[in-house]
UniProtKB/TrEMBL annotation:
It is found in: Cytoplasm, Cytoskeleton. Residues 396-733 form the Kinesin motor domain. Residues 14-38 are annotated as: Disordered. It comes from Brassica campestris. Residues 16-35 have a biased composition (Polar residues). One of its GO terms (biological process) is microtubule-based movement. CDD domains: KISc_C_terminal. SUPFAM superfamilies: P-loop containing nucleoside triphosphate hydrolases. Belongs to the TRAFAC class myosin-kinesin ATPase superfamily. Kinesin family. KIN-14 subfamily. One of its GO terms (molecular function) is microtubule binding. This is Kinesin-like protein. The keyword Membrane does not apply.
Amino acid sequence: MVGAMANNGRIRSAFPVTNGSKDLTPNSAPASTAGSEYGPVEFSREDVEALLNERIKYKSKFNYKERCENMMDYIKRLRLCIRWFQELELDYAFEQEKLKNALEMNEKHCADMETSLRNKEEELNMIIEELRKNFESAQIQLAKEQTEKLAANDSLGKEKEARLAVEKAQAGLTEELGKAQGELQTANQRIQSVNDMYKLLQEYNSSLQLYNSKLQGDLDEAHETIKRGEKERTAIVENIGNLKGQFSALQDQLAASKASQDDIMKQKAELVNEVASLKLELQQAKDERDHHLTELKTLQTEAAKYNDFKDTIAELEATCSSQSSQIRELQDQLVSSDRQLQMSDLTTFEKMNEFKEQKQTIIDLKSRVEEAELKFVEGEKLRKKLHNTILELKGNIRVFCRVRPLLPGENNGDEGKTISYPASLELLGRGIDLMQNAQKHSFTFDKVFVPNTSQEGVFIEISQLVQSALDGYKVCIFAYGQTGSGKTYTMMGKPGNVEEKGLIPRCLEQIFETRQSLRSQGWKYELQVSMLEIYNETIRDLLSTNKEAVRTDNGVSPQKHAIKHDAHGNTHVAELTILDVKSSREVSFLLDHAARNRSVGKTQMNEQSSRSHFVFTLRISGVNESTEQQVQGVLNLIDLAGSERLSKSGSTGDRLKETQAINKSLSSLGDVIFALGKKEDHIPFRNSKLTYLLQPCLGGDSKTLMFVNIAPESSSTGESLCSLRFAARVNACEIGTPRRQTNIKQLDRLSLG
């Protein structure tokens, strides 16, 4: 213990630095450890995992003083770790405040952009008014100058195009203004939703504190660690939400800026073309003026000789003066166009700078979002690990509830009235409510799966438990529920459909993949498989090649498969076929073979009703050649036959005998659970073959998980209520802390671990 304390008490880098991430802010101060019992200590990820995985060893089993001292020392180190998490939480709160300030700055920037857009709109209106005046003057010139009719028509067409472009630009700016206002409203709504979520999370944390106060004293410190992990996860989720909101808003602003820049570039090109055309018209007007001046001089020289052409000379002088005024107007238009072109260039330059700044801001936000998501994933993993540690210390049987979807032809009118799910954060994903005779019955389990949950989603929740089998633990997962509630679908899945594979095929795939990946670390595993069914209180070997040994006409197997338990908690089934397997494909073939041999029958409740309890056992023996460490694990996957009422199933003959045997064995299972819950001295495991076979899973050192399957139709409300009540009693049973089996030289040929 002293060595472990010294190892965990040495000074290390902060947890984010150890994981390869950056500090939250450049000005963030290191976590304070003032008041710590062990000086300034910081924890890395390896330290936390080592602290959680530490198993206290005792020299004497009955030396309670030593056990108390070791437990107090372990609690002190847990407190030190919790204090460190509290200080880390303060850093996250500081980062959240900083992100809020950044959001306010962005909102202010949006308001400034809105003001600038309005100013631009006014400038464009002035430009439109000036262009309209120019259009009127051009019409007057058309009426007076017949010789310049074609040139004036071209100028009028260009002015019309310019007006349409300006109107389009105005409409685009109006649309951008509307988008900016909508984005501002959306951001305000997101802020409000984040505040509401924060309040709900505060209520959830307070309820967790009330719940944790009822647990045993030696688990209080571990519960405090869970709370810190939940708060950290909440802060990270809020940070991710805020960053994603800012990221999407900046992306929209960037798109709007790009569109505005494109419009400005188009206006610039149009203005350049207009300036060129005006210069051309100006040159033409100058040429005409020179020509008319030449004619005027010629006429003046001839006027001395011919006094009869005075009227013509006056007309030419008037034409010259009008053309001079027209030239001055065109020069004014040219100056105005040059100014507009300079303004457009300046606006384009400003937009380009703003675009670059927003692009850099988006890159920074992307990196922060990625960092926050990474921290969120790490925090979620740590939370699950701490939660599993508490469950292992409590020694309770975990219970998952799964509600199957309605089948074609079933009454779905009362589904909402029969089964519902609490929406509060405290019970989200863990609670289920059942209505019967206008009375509401509420239940809470470790996990509740709604009807639309996929097979993969269910398997993800148990994948860590399956991994424990490779680590040397005994693991048992069994499905319970009435007939037709989806137990066999949960465990075996739908044949031929990859996406609807059940838990058994997915567990095997994970184990073989993990075995392959652990070879690089020096581990070698040997796997053995056995499959049996309990039919009418008789054990049948489903892997036997002798069909007569599997099933006879009278339903009694000629082979005697006796069940025996040794002193180490291992179970032996006599004369049971046990096969070595090398790949998941071999196991799939064996599963198909067992499914063909399993007893099924047709009832009024189910076309393919399982008439027996199916037990799949995978024994795992691992050896590490470099460390010479040996582990032995067992994975038991059990599909129980469904409970049914004779009034609904309509069973007769052989089906009636099967129903009676099934209900009797499930009733014995209920008696065992009831006795375990009351912690009675005598547990009636021997009342049935099923309970006697499950004795190591229910009363030993195994990690046990039960799936309670529920049918959603209103006609099954009574059976569903019974199943949920039974599952609640199972969830309250304490069966002891799981024990890892290591340093075993030879793997015994066991059946159920």
